[in-house]
Design a protein that fits this description.
β9, α10 and β10 form a beta-alpha-beta unit. α5 packs parallel to α6 and α5 packs across α7. It contains 17 helices and 14 strands. The chain has a 6-stranded parallel beta sheet with strand order 1-11-10-9-12-13, sandwiched between helices.
């Protein structure tokens, strides 16, 4: 069901050579980009009419309007199962607790007497958030996108999710109910690249945004790449990933269950176990069969995901080597199931989120840990972070110098300007001091 990669016996290669040995899903955003380009430009030129046409083509629904009526949000919340509502409310509460503490305040540094630099943090004015609605429905992604934007102080928040034929062309009612719980009343029935284009260009109904965030399929990722530079994005999210670094103390039942939990997202989902224990590897392989057989989405998602090139059990000589492997892999979700798990977790450099020990499974982070589950995939954790309050804030430096403070350093500024053959830069200071710069 799942392949093995044996890296024991020889010294591990470094950098890209090690990454090339590790499993990874094929996810060709560049190829998808050529297909989404005409869609995005069509939305640019035809606006709402294009959105309605693509909803018919891609989602099989005929929309009368793209914006979700306010009464539909109210009705969705009223009809929400009480247990689901309680779970969403707790998820929101915990996410707010964590994200509220992330907000940075302004900080002023006195460089010299009379010379200060202040960094202030200003929220993005308007954001478009995307909640997927393909194989599964993700109200949790509504929470994970909306809460940090709200806690950052974003003043205008719009959300898009694909129209559903089953619900008369509206997004899934649980998505709408989550929006209502969060106080988001600007919601659109639009999916994939079409939704991203709507946000980027604006339409008759939707004002353009400054930034788009949220997970999605390859078409969403390609559209984000297309609009990079015009709008801000969080990340080009690829198929979800779990890596588990485990030793002989790990429970194979837990490890197998956690690998399966990510495999059920998508046939391209990655499930990777890195271990120095042959016995654990064998026990996990044995445990996968009955657990897969007992669950849902087996043939269309889980089996192809576990059997795909993106999933494997990676055998290493030691946990030290295992640490090198998971750092090279840069997993979206990394579980540490070892003796002294916290110590090993503290040494990890590359991961979207780290889950420490047997009682912090990825599923907890997906819903109710308080952490954010919108995380970098495809090895991007080596250079990028997950969604947070900081994603929606911009740092602005405010420079405030007196005449004396400028005079003290003016000759250095002139010297550097002339060294770069930019004499007008220096002249801007000379003009302030009667063309005779102090210190020269």
């Amino acid at each position: 069901m799942i392949s093995r990669i044996d890296l024991r016996g020889d010294a591990l290669p470094e950098g890209a050579a090690l990454r090339d040995l590790l499993p990874r899903a094929e996810f060709d955003v560049e190829a998808a980009l050529e297909k989404v380009r005409p869609i995005c430009e069509d939305v640019h030129h035809r606006g709402t009419a294009a959105l309605i046409e693509y909803a018919q083509k891609f989602d099989g629904v005929r929309l009368e309007q793209v914006r979700v009526p306010a009464e539909a949000l109210t009705e969705a919340l009223a009809g929400l199962d009480a247990k689901v509502r309680a779970a969403l409310e707790e998820s929101i509460r915990r996410a707010r607790t964590v994200h509220r503490s992330q907000r940075r305040g302004a900080h002023t540094t006195q460089v010299v007497p009379g010379g200060t630099v202040t960094e202030k943090w200003v929220p993005v004015e308007r954001v478009g958030l995307y909640a997927p609605g393909g194989r599964s429905v993700y109200p949790s992604s509504v929470v994970m996108n909306v809460v940090p934007a709200q806690e950052a102080g974003v003043g205008s928040i719009a959300l898009a999710s694909p129209p559903q034929a089953e619900f008369g062309g509206l997004p899934h009612p649980t998505i709408l109910a989550a929006c209502a719980l969060l106080g988001v009343d600007e919601v659109y029935a639009a999916g994939g690249a079409v939704a991203v284009a709507m946000f980027a260009y604006g339409t008759e109904d939707c004002l353009p945004v400054n930034m788009v965030t949220g997970p999605g399929n390859i078409w969403v990722a390609a559209a984000k790449r297309y609009f990079t530079g015009k709008i801000g994005i969080d990340t080009e999210a690829g198929p979800t990933e779990i890596a588990v670094l485990a030793d002989a103390t790990a429970d194979p039942v837990h490890v197998a269950a956690d690998l399966i939990s990510q495999a059920e997202h998508d046939p391209l989902a990655a499930a990777v176990l890195v271990t120095d224990s042959e016995d654990l590897a064998a026990a996990v392989e044995k445990e996968l069969e009955p657990q897969v057989a007992a669950t849902k989405h087996v043939e269309d998602r889980i089996r192809p995901a576990l059997a795909g090139r993106q999933s494997a059990i990676v055998l290493v000589d030691s946990l030290e080597d295992g640490l090198k492997v998971v750092d090279a892999y840069g997993a979206e979700h990394l579980e540490i199931q070892t003796a002294d798990a916290a110590t090993w977790a503290a040494r990890v450099r590359n991961a979207g989120a780290i889950f420490v020990g047997p009682w912090a499974p990825v599923s907890l982070g997906d819903y109710c840990a308080g952490s954010n589950h919108v995380l970098p995939t495809g090895g991007c954790a080596c250079h990028s972070s997950g969604l947070s309050v900081q994603s929606f804030l911009r740092g602005i430096h405010i420079v405030d110098y007196t005449r004396d403070a400028l005079a003290e350093v003016a000759h250095h500024v002139v010297t550097l300007a002339e060294a770069e053959d930019l004499p007008a830069h220096g002249a801007a200071l000379k003009a302030r001091f009667g063309w005779k710069v102090p210190g020269q």
